[in-house]
Specification:
The protein contains eleven helices and no strands. The chain is globular and about 50 Å long. It is an all-alpha fold. The protein has helices at about 5-10, 40-55, 60-70, 80-90, 95-105, 115-125, 130-140, 150-160, 165-180, 185-200, 200-210.
């Protein structure tokens, strides 16, 4: 999702694989999600994604779509990013479904279509992509492209949080802090914020500090 992709979600896949390019072997980075890379790895990763995608690895096609949308290690090409994400999603690459959903949600390279975005996020979530669950949860929380359903949003956030999505933990924390879709439980909210903060999520850190000061968590 352009530069804001990580600001919305976090993908967690093979973080330990994202070492330096020194000693990099062809194909080594093909399983590493793009947001786990350092800038000096972009070119090598894009090459690995391309090779894996050409060999039929749907997830790699989705990863390569991200790279083309952002111009990481390749020249930016939004149309190609859309094509790669579409291909990945059609071949059961859940990351591609989530990324294509993002592109539809913001109208980047495709007509803006919140309903289509929600359908793609659901497909990603059903394919065990936690970012898809998170983004679908945000849509159900806000009623964007779907009928607003805070209770279902909380379930989606809980699923994504359990899978390691720090922003989902923070989002669920807000719902517990305000009794939105769940029973109000400040102790549980604090634990969720602390978990998000421990994963490096600044939103979780700020919310935990607000609760500690007994300030409202909007």
């Amino acid at each position: 999702m352009a530069s804001s992709w990580r600001g919305v979600i976090g993908f967690v896949l093979c973080a330990s694989c994202a070492g330096s390019n020194a000693g990099h072997k062809p194909g080594q980075l093909a399983l590493v999600a793009p947001d786990r890379l350092r800038p000096e790895q972009y070119a090598a990763a894009a090459s690995d994604y391309r090779s894996a995608c050409d060999s039929g690895a749907a997830q790699a096609c989705g990863y390569l779509g991200f790279m083309y949308d952002n111009g990481h290690g390749v020249q930016s090409d939004v149309a190609l990013a859309v094509n790669l994400s579409t291909r990945a999603c059609s071949e059961a690459g859940a990351y591609g479904c989530a990324y294509l959903g993002y592109l539809y949600q913001v109208g980047r390279g495709v007509p803006q279509d919140a309903t289509r975005a929600a359908t793609l996020y659901r497909k990603a979530c059903d394919g065990e992509d936690s970012s898809g669950c998170l983004l679908l949860g945000i849509m159900y929380k806000t009623g964007s492209g779907v009928v607003q359903d805070p209770e279902y949003a909380a379930q989606l956030f809980n699923r994504a949080c359990d899978d390691g999505e720090s922003l989902a933990c923070a989002s669920l924390g807000y719902m517990y802090a305000n009794g939105e879709g769940v029973d109000r439980d400040l102790a549980h909210a604090k634990a969720l914020f602390r978990s998000a903060c421990a994963s490096g999520d600044e939103i979780g850190c700020d919310a935990e500090a607000q609760l500690a000061r007994r300030e409202p968590v909007p």
